[in-house]
Amino acid sequence: MSEDKLIRLLLPASAHGAFLRHPLLAGARKLGTRKLVDVYFDTPDLALRRHAIALRTRKEGRRWVQTVKHTACDPDKRRTPPKWERPYTGRFDFSDIDDLRVRRLLEWHSVDSPSARIFEIALSRTAWRLTPARKTSLLIMLDRGLVRSGRMLDEISEVVLIPERGQTAAGYELALTLAASLPLRPGILSRLERGYHLRQGTQIEPAKAAASPVHAGQSPRQAFQGVAAACLRQFQLNELGAGLDDPEFIHQMRVALRRLRSALRVFMPVLPAQLVAAAAPQIRTLAATLGRARDRDVLTQEILAPVRSAFPKDARIKTLCDAAEIDRRAARDEARTVLANAEHARFLLSFAAMLDALPRGADDQPIEAFAARRIARLRVKLHALAQEAQNLETEPLHALRIGAKRLRYAIDFFAPLYRSKDVEAAHARLVRLQDTLGTLTDLANAATLLERYAGNDSALSEAVARIDGWHRTRHDAPRAELPGRIGDLLEAKRLALRVRRRLGP
User: Fold this and answer.
1) Neighbour count for residue 25 (Cβ, 10 Å)
2) pLDDT value at position 433?
3) Strand blocks (E) in 134-259
4) Is pLDDT above 80 for 364?
5) Which of 151, 289, 410, 434 has the fewest CB atoms within 10 Å around its CB?
6) Rounded to an integer, what distance in angstroms lies between the CA atom of residue 233 and that of residue 253?
7) Beta carbons of 99 and 70 less than 8 angstroms apart
8) What CA–CA distance (Å, rounded) separates 495 from 505?
């Protein structure tokens, strides 16, 4: 059973009946319903969690099983994390764990006391086996229950698909078939993660991009799979906070999409044309929706809020602030509507399916050579954009900012292949340029929106000019630094982008 390839789908409790009546289940063999109880253990300071060790006991009927998993032994996920199971008789026994470090950590920490029970998962599981083709079988499971930690509860209502035999593509095909008529959404958090969130009482926090999973020895297509999956995970983690008012969730979703679009461009020579054609337009449309919300968050919080504080009695500025807030809420409502749409959920599933099915063939090549060529190409293009931007006109500066961002993301993707000092130096130089150009872009976007709010009202137009002037005087220094930073890009010897392949540990 390929549990590492399971597909987790969230299903509202109100849709259980529709799921049970789905025609696909009529052709599946029902395996029955059983009760499962999982009890997770850790130290009071969650030491096992810090070491990425999960310890649980599971009750299946009258039988208890002890399970230990270690998920940090292979951060690139090139193989299934090791799992050790044995009968549980009321006392833990770690003698058969062949990873000495894991065994010592478990034996060192006291986890046999009742206080070590940190959360419990109790659920009812109804399972079916579907055999859609010869040598292909999948388990379909409907799990309903609760995660409990003390008095805190979290409901579980999920459909889990696990390929038993055959390719995982069959699992995604089944998921998309079910999602065509059911309100299913990909589940990004494991039950372990949900349990620890509940135990710690932590709120959902915005998730930044994780370190690149690329490693030497991969093919470019394998590298793309890891990079794109990381972008997708960052997006989905931040999507959990889309209903909250914290603008950072929208911002990080947008960052994840920008990184994903950059990955499609960087790896395009080795990707199937149909993958790019299918994914790029939907990603672009979603990014535009989130971009509208992000622009209005920046306007209200970073452009208008400080001016409002500086001129609290200016009624014209207050009027513009009120109009901007109405527009901001409308843009956020639009974004939430798009994210809640069933079509969006199906896109997330279909993109994950495309990543899983990415072919490997003769076109693949060593990742080191591929990375060097792609970074060199972006560096040459950025040099040309820097030459065009020396006149400091708006459009060339905007193109330069995009070029710098694309090069920075490419360096981020391939960072594990190069010396960290070179990567850090290149990253810092590009970020400084982006920050300066970003400030100018934010002011230009703000001016456009504010002029729209002002309309033909001359008094409001004067207030727009006041806001623009207030900010520009405070950004004279970054603007003055811009020619020098562009010059750095044009002077190759000073451009710290000549990353070198890591030759040693």
Assistant:
1) 17
2) 87
3) 136-149, 152-165, 185-186
4) no
5) 151
6) 10
7) yes
8) 25
Asked if 416 and 394 touch (Cβ cutoff 8 Å), the reply is no
**Residue 379 token pair:** 């560096």
- Give the count of domains, the chain: 2
For residue 110, give both structure tokens: 């006291």
Q: Are residues 96 and 169 in the same domain?
A: yes
Span 436-456, average pLDDT: 91
**Cα(403)–Cα(376) distance, rounded to whole angstroms?**
13
- In a 3-state reduction of DSSP, which class is residue 485? helix
Which among 145, 137, 139, 101 has a CA at the least distance from the CA of 119?
Answer: 145
Q: Do residue 421 and residue 297 come from a single domain? A: yes
- Helix 458-474 and helix 315-340: axis angle, to 10°? 80
C-alpha–C-alpha distance, residues 28 and 30, integer Å: 6
Q: Are residues 193 and 297 in the same domain?
A: no
**Could you list the residue range(s) of the whole structural domain that residue 93 is in?**
3-200
Which runs of E-coded beta strand occur in 187-241? none
- Looking at residues 368-374, what average pLDDT do you find? 91
Residue 415 lies in a domain: yes
The answer to whether 68 and 97 are in contact (CB under 8 A) is: yes
| Residue-by-residue DSSP string for 424-446 | HHHHHHHHHHHHHHHHHHHHHHH
pLDDT of 314 strictly over 80? yes
Residue 120 predicted with pLDDT over 90 = yes
First to last CA, the chain: 36
* pTM assigned to the model: 0.91
For residue 362, give every residue at least 6 positions away whose Cβ sits within 8 Å of its Cβ, in sequence order, or none: none
Measured CA to CA, the distance from residue 458 to residue 423 in angstroms comes to 50
Cα–Cα separations (whole angstroms), residue 72 to 82, 86, 102, 448:
10, 21, 11, 48
- How many Cβ atoms from other residues are within 10 Å of residue 133's Cβ? 9
Q: Give the CATH number for residue 450.
A: 1.40.20.10
- The first and second tokens of residue 461, run together, are 């137009």
179 Cβ neighbours under 8 A, 6+ residues apart: 9, 342, 345, 346, 349
Q: Which helix (H) or strand (E) holds 112?
A: none
- Residue 70: half-sphere exposure toward Cβ, Cα within 13 Å: 16
